[in-house]
Amino acid sequence: MRLNRRKIQRVVKAVLLGLGVALVLVQFVPVDRTNPPVETRVDAPADVVAVLERACYDCHSNETVWPAYSRVAPVSWLVAYDVHEGREAVNYSTWGRYSAEDRAKFRKETWEEVEEGEMPLKLYPLLHPDARLTDADRELLRAWAAGAEEYEDSEHEDESEH
């Protein structure tokens, strides 16, 4: 049996209408986009905190900035999933909950993820260009992770004034 052009057009229209209805209906599936209160902030030099805030905080803190696309399903599901997974891995807004040993471990893991190119996630800097890490940003995170004793706020403040 051969389908004529009209039948094919009707089928295509029905499929597109069905997809459109499904897209509208999925908008009603609730997504948790909450930001719990910040308990404590990460104890790091100001320039390290600035890098973390710019490149990490949207997924690894309770200070997530939820962009417009995080309100449109199915993208909203992916964004919420990444944020919840990120907060579970390490949450810089609950830094005080972690033991000194865990904080040291998270500092090291943060650097390892950055060094291996795993963080920030590949898509994130495409949508948030300011989250791209420079070599200087990476060096700050490396030194912070290593707990470099030579790292002093005053040195970096002097450099930023020039």
Give a quick rundown of the structure.
The protein is an all-alpha fold. It has helices at residues 5-26, 46-55, 57-60, 75-89, 100-115, 123-127, 135-146, 153-161.
Span between N and C termini?
79 Å
Report the radius of gyration as a whole number of Å.
22 Å
Query: Per DSSP, what share of the residues sits in E-state strands of 2 or more residues?
Result: under 5%
- List low-pLDDT spans: 148-160
Largest sheet geometry: none
Tally of helical runs: 8
The total beta strand count reads: 0
Helix content: 55-70%
Give the CA-based shape: elongated
Keywords:
mainly alpha; 2 domains; elongated
Draw up the topology in text.
Elements: H1 5-26, H2 46-55, H3 57-60, H4 75-89, H5 100-115, H6 123-127, H7 135-146, H8 153-161
Helix pairs in contact: 5-7
Molecular structure report:
57% of the residues lie in helices and 0% in strands. The protein contains eight helices and no strands. It folds into two domains: 1-30; 31-161, no CATH class. It is elongated and about 70 Å long. With 162 residues, the chain is mainly α.
